[in-house]
Design a protein that fits this description.
- The strands form five sheets. A nine-stranded antiparallel beta sheet has the order 8-9-10-11-24-20-19-14-17, with no helix packed on it.
- It has 296 residues and is an all-beta fold.
- The two termini are 32 Å apart.
- The protein is 2% helix and 46% strand.
- The chain has one helix and 24 strands.
- The chain has a single domain, classed as Beta-galactosidase, Chain A, domain 5 (Distorted Sandwich).
Length: 296
């Protein structure tokens, strides 16, 4: 599998265009040595994107409950796309090979063209992901263009897998909980329990989360006191949801900023507000911007 490496004086980032535009690693140079910021790719796993350091979620984030949704009066169905998961999940960008449109030492532009006649998402679209290194920042731009004659619903996000150390601390602000674990997604977000509140920053510890929060302000900090490193995650104002996953007995956790919540298409159809679904008109484009900034 072809790997592209972006590099500057602070960062090295490996990218696998043919494996869902995923990152195979992200390292930061401190005191002359590179240290991992994200979980490096487990090359022994069959699906590289799902076991990578980061992959984009396009053209929707998280699950579509039951594998179908209704939009503009038409019910559309999708097949499940992940082993062990009974619903379509994370979009279909992570399952596809992307084309390199442009590349330099610190920037790459990747393109994916999806035809609704193929498997996967039942709308035609063209997506771009642009990774750029700007100082100690990994800048990520996502673009989705509707290639259909009808409006298209969509969502955008990323799944970065941060390394989990004994002293790692997490800080982010949110307002409510939209889903947790395998609980039913009812569309009635509830207040964040006190011990789930990371607004002031605290150790991640050993609690297991599989939780989607709403009212996210797009800002988060991951601090590694033992290494003297902090990672600042910044997303633009449309990233109003974030999922925290902390698998037990693993050396990583995932904090995924997203424009939409779990099962957002079906919740929006049932009249729930605040799901974050974006509607793109025929041949129009939606864009989103995020960045991961490392401070040493």
């Amino acid at each position: 599998m072809t790997k592209v490496v972006l590099e500057n004086e602070y960062l090295q980032v490996g990218i696998l265009p043919q494996s869902g535009a995923c990152l195979s690693f992200m390292t930061y140079k401190k005191n002359g040595e590179f240290t991992n910021i994200l979980r490096p790719l487990d090359a022994h796993q069959k699906n590289e994107a799902l076991h990578s350091a980061l992959f984009p979620m396009i053209p929707f984030c998280f699950r579509i409950q039951g594998g179908e949704f209704t939009y503009w009066g038409i019910t559309r169905r999708m097949k499940k796309n992940k082993a062990g998961e009974s619903n379509p999940i994370y979009g279909d960008g992570w399952e596809n090979a992307w084309k390199v449109e442009e590349k330099s030492s610190d920037k790459i532009v990747l393109k994916l063209v999806h035809d609704k006649k193929d498997w996967g998402y039942p709308f035609s679209y063209t997506a771009h992901v642009i990774y750029s290194l700007i100082g100690s920042t990994l800048d990520i731009q996502i673009k989705i263009k509707n290639d259909s004659v009808l409006p298209m619903p969509c969502g955008m996000g990323i799944r970065p897998f941060f390394k989990k150390t004994p002293e790692v601390q997490l800080k982010f602000r949110a307002q409510d909980v939209w889903s947790n674990g395998k609980d039913a997604i009812l569309g009635h977000p509830y207040a964040i329990p006190g011990n789930w509140d990371f607004s002031e920053g605290k150790p991640l510890e050993k609690k297991v989360f599989e939780t989607c929060f709403g009212g996210f302000d797009g800002q988060a900090e991951i601090t590694y006191p033992e290494e003297g490193i902090k990672v600042e995650l910044r997303g633009d104002e449309q990233f109003r949801h974030v999922a925290l996953e902390t698998p037990g007995r693993k050396n990583y956790f995932c904090l995924s900023p997203a424009t939409n919540t779990e099962d957002a298409f079906n919740l929006a159809f049932s009249g729930v507000v605040g799901t974050g679904i974006k509607s793109i008109g025929p041949f129009e484009e939606a864009t989103a911007h995020l960045e991961l900034k490392v401070k040493g």
